[in-house]
């Protein structure tokens, strides 16, 4: 069931499959997918299957699921350097009001992507 999701949130709708996404890893408590407007190639997002705007509102069991997923994505992507980022509130650059962790690769210059 998806009892912790809302009807009108874009990320809740991605979890429900109503909006297409490039899925990476799905568990019972989290969903991860590629960012539609990547800051660098490989930019991924991990979201709890729990609608909350702020980090501190997410129940522990959902956070405890999401972080190891972020770790798996970083490890599986063979990333050298990267940011794990999570914004809370408009003043902190949060655009989508459903908690999400960014995994943002920092390609080195030798790869020609920096
Ligand atoms: P924020 O600024 O809220 O921390 O980050 C929101 C992120 O969600 C942005 O990087 C943006 O590109 C991404 N995003 C917004 N809408 C969609 C969407 O419909 N699909 C996907 N895959 N990413 C989205
Ligand atoms: Zn939501």
Major sheet: order of its strands? 1-2-3-5-4
Q: What structural class do you assign from the helix and strand content?
A: alpha+beta
Major sheet size, sense and barrel closure:
5 strands, antiparallel
What integer is the average pLDDT?
94
The distinct ligands, each listed once, are: guanosine-5'-monophosphate, zinc ion
Q: Segments where pLDDT lies below 50 for 5+ residues?
A: none
Provide the number of structural domains. 1
CATH architecture: 2-Layer Sandwich
Q: What would you call the quaternary organization?
A: single chain
Question: Terminal Cα separation, in Å?
Answer: 42 Å
CATH C-level name: Alpha Beta
Q: In DSSP terms, counting alpha (H) and pi (I) runs of 4 or more, how many helices?
A: 2
Percentage of β-strand residues: 15-25%
- What is the 3D shape? globular
CATH topology: HIT family, subunit A
What does this 3D model show about the protein?
This is HIT-like domain-containing protein. GO terms for molecular function: catalytic activity. With 114 residues, this protein is α+β, with helices and mostly antiparallel strands. It has one domain: HIT-like (HIT family, subunit A). It is 20% helix and 20% strand. The chain is built from two helices and five strands; from the N terminus they run H-E-E-E-H-E-E. Strands 1-2-3-5-4 form a five-stranded antiparallel β-sheet, covered by helices on one side. The chain binds guanosine-5'-monophosphate and zinc ion (ZN). The site of zinc ion has 7 residues, from helix 1. The site of guanosine-5'-monophosphate has 13 residues, from strand 2.
């Amino acid at each position: 069931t998806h009892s912790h999701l809302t009807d009108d949130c874009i990320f809740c709708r991605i979890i429900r499959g109503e909006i297409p996404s490039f899925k990476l890893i799905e568990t019972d408590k989290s969903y991860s997918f590629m960012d539609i407007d990547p800051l660098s190639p490989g930019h991924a997002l991990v979201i709890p299957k729990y609608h909350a705007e702020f980090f501190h509102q997410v129940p522990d069991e959902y956070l405890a699921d999401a972080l190891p997923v972020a770790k798996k994505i970083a490890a599986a992507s063979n990333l050298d350097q990267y940011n794990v980022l999570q914004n809370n509130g408009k003043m902190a650059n949060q655009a989508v009001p459903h908690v999400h962790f960014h995994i943002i690769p920092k390609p080195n210059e030798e790869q020609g992507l920096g």
